[in-house]
Amino acid sequence: MISTTALMAQQPGDALAPTRIERRDLRPDDVAVRVTHCGVCFTDLHALDATDPGAFPVVPGHEFTGEVLEVGSEVTRVAVGDRVAVGNIVDSCGQCPRCLDDEQAWCTQFPTLTYGGVDRHDGQRTLGGYSGAYVVRDEFVYRLPDGLDPAAAAPLMCAGVTMWGPLRSEQVGPGSRVGVVGIGGLGHLGVRLARAMGAEVTAITSSIAKADDALRLGASRVVVSQDDDAMRAAAGSLDVVLDTIGFEHDLEPYVGLLADRGVLYPVGFLGTLSIASMALLIGHKRLSSAGGGGRGSTVRMLEFCAEHGITADVEVLSASRAHEAIERLRAGDVRYRFVLAMQEA
């Protein structure tokens, strides 16, 4: 087994603390990764804020980069020393219709989550990437393309995949008009990806202070959502809107931005959302969903980002400052993603 240090909360209310853990012995199709950088996601906050003792112990982290330490006897896709990246799932059944359709994130047998999941082979709780090493099934380890900085690329494995999916599903390209609601960890990558695909991008933000940033990221227009006149002026002007707001909110103002037959993707909030059907009916507008991605989609996203020089805007903190990262993220004090340097765990 591989012994490593992880940042673990043992029970509800606990702060993360360095803890020695044992990673499993490598199976024939396993890869051991030395984690160098791990992104800090809002999902990590939700996990640490859980009140159910059954959800603990928890080691957060599901977007990380590193180097291959060791490979199982059947592994040929990567070799020791390769730069790699891992996202929010680390196994799936591989046999259900969704897996066969390259949608492993939605495996009908439920995929194995990078943390907070259950290993399908030994029944053990999975512990995440806030650690010095991780063991993962080889099919869910991705080569990190040359030219992508490992710290700034780590958030691509969650936030990047989340934005990539709907943009590709809607075949966004030159002539497309894309709106991105919320310029944060998700949204700033949405702007960059849509612009690189050739779309005209509108950033919709509640903070006028982010206007210059949105333009720097590639937006050609910024609409302040609190400005009723600006929202009315933008009505009916967008083909695709990516809504990255992370809490319950009214969808109708953003449906109002859609042109006829446009589509709204709420990707930031995973709770219950509601909307009057008439808001969609007039103009044949659509409400869709996205999140996560299969293996093929993840590979294509990484290749596209390498080709276009797309990474996240990150602030890198040592692992010893994980609590600071968590609290600042909770307060919205980050532009636009914290990444922990895990070699310092």
TrEMBL record:
<dbReference type="InterPro" id="IPR011032">
    <property type="entry name" value="GroES-like_sf"/>
</dbReference>
<dbReference type="InterPro" id="IPR036291">
    <property type="entry name" value="NAD(P)-bd_dom_sf"/>
</dbReference>
<dbReference type="InterPro" id="IPR020843">
    <property type="entry name" value="ER"/>
</dbReference>
<keyword id="KW-0862">Zinc</keyword>
<dbReference type="InterPro" id="IPR013149">
    <property type="entry name" value="ADH-like_C"/>
</dbReference>
<dbReference type="InterPro" id="IPR013154">
    <property type="entry name" value="ADH-like_N"/>
</dbReference>
<keyword id="KW-0560">Oxidoreductase</keyword>
<dbReference type="InterPro" id="IPR002328">
    <property type="entry name" value="ADH_Zn_CS"/>
</dbReference>
<dbReference type="GO" id="GO:0008270">
    <property type="term" value="F:zinc ion binding"/>
</dbReference>
<protein>
    <recommendedName>
        <fullName>alcohol dehydrogenase (NADP(+))</fullName>
        <ecNumber>1.1.1.2</ecNumber>
    </recommendedName>
</protein>
<dbReference type="Pfam" id="PF00107">
    <property type="entry name" value="ADH_zinc_N"/>
</dbReference>
<feature type="domain" description="Enoyl reductase (ER)">
    <location>
        <begin position="13"/>
        <end position="340"/>
    </location>
</feature>
<dbReference type="Pfam" id="PF08240">
    <property type="entry name" value="ADH_N"/>
</dbReference>
<comment type="similarity">
    <text>Belongs to the zinc-containing alcohol dehydrogenase family.</text>
</comment>
<keyword id="KW-0479">Metal-binding</keyword>
<dbReference type="GO" id="GO:0008106">
    <property type="term" value="F:alcohol dehydrogenase (NADP+) activity"/>
</dbReference>
<dbReference type="InterPro" id="IPR047109">
    <property type="entry name" value="CAD-like"/>
</dbReference>
